[in-house]
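Hey,

Quick one before I head out. I ran the complex with adenosine-5'-triphosphate overnight. Inputs first:
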Amino acid sequence: MSAPRDRSAGPLEIRGLTAGYRHRPVLHDLTLPLLHAGQHIALVGPNGAGKSTLLRVLAGLVEGRGSVRFDGFDLLRVSAMQRAQRVAFMPQSLPQDVTLSVLDGLLGALKASPMSPPVETMEDAQQRGIAVLERIGIAHLALQPLQHLSGGERQLAGLAQAIVREPAMLLLDEPTSALDLRHQVTVMSLARALAHEGRLVISVLHDLTLAARWADQLIVLDGGRVQAMGAPTAALTSTLLSRIYGVDARVEPCSFGYPQVIVDGTRDRVGEGDAR
Ligand SMILES: Nc1ncnc2c1ncn2[C@@H]1O[C@H](COP(=O)(O)OP(=O)(O)OP(=O)(O)O)[C@@H](O)[C@H]1O
């Protein structure tokens, strides 16, 4: 699966977006520069910053006011079917009580929304499913019930469900949170490869070093507002980390030149015994 796309989707344009829960806004009049297909964007920021809320607005799970357009479509008003043809969302975790096998979960995802080119036969659908599992490195789990998987395996199965429809925009909510070091790199390099094939991929990440290594651009959110945006080397600074996370941190290039974040302690010395 996932040859380069015939046509890159048009950009994502977010202007004046206000969104939240029960009259409590979380995102405040959010405006971003155009986000173009072909890029892997990491959405980072402290707990409660509004990162998942932004992904949920794009996925149609939370309502918003303002303007959100992707590939010419008004994402605040498109039908669920039109959205599903373009956008796939991987939540933080799949439910734990699903008795379907990993492969049947993929077939269900394929059935749930038509894709282009369409899946013609069950054999075609199975081949696509297996190809995705192989790309993620979990083909050996194809016949396992989802409920028998470990947390990390379930996260990889969730990623497979999101990418099997080959969406033009892929939204990944903390896709590496349950993964070991090797699988973190597998998933991040896959996210970047899928983007460079012509998709827009947005990943919510907490690990800033991972984000800086594998994303083309960072968007730093705090309090529902953009605090910084740009190439990782430009967006990540000690001053910013101190201000939004309250930590003493250094941003230093690793031997490959990518920025890595080293945290020396919390600025207010909370939990000093652990942090220092
Ligand atoms: N379903 C909900 N109902 C009400 N409030 C919610 C709901 N989901 C999130 N919130 C609130 O919205 C705010 C932003 O939450 P969100 O999940 O977008 O943050 P986040 O940046 O993804 O955080 P984290 O890094 O902790 O996952 C939080 O204050 C949270 O309490």
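Residues 39 and 195 are 5 Å apart (CA to CA).

Talk tomorrow,
K.
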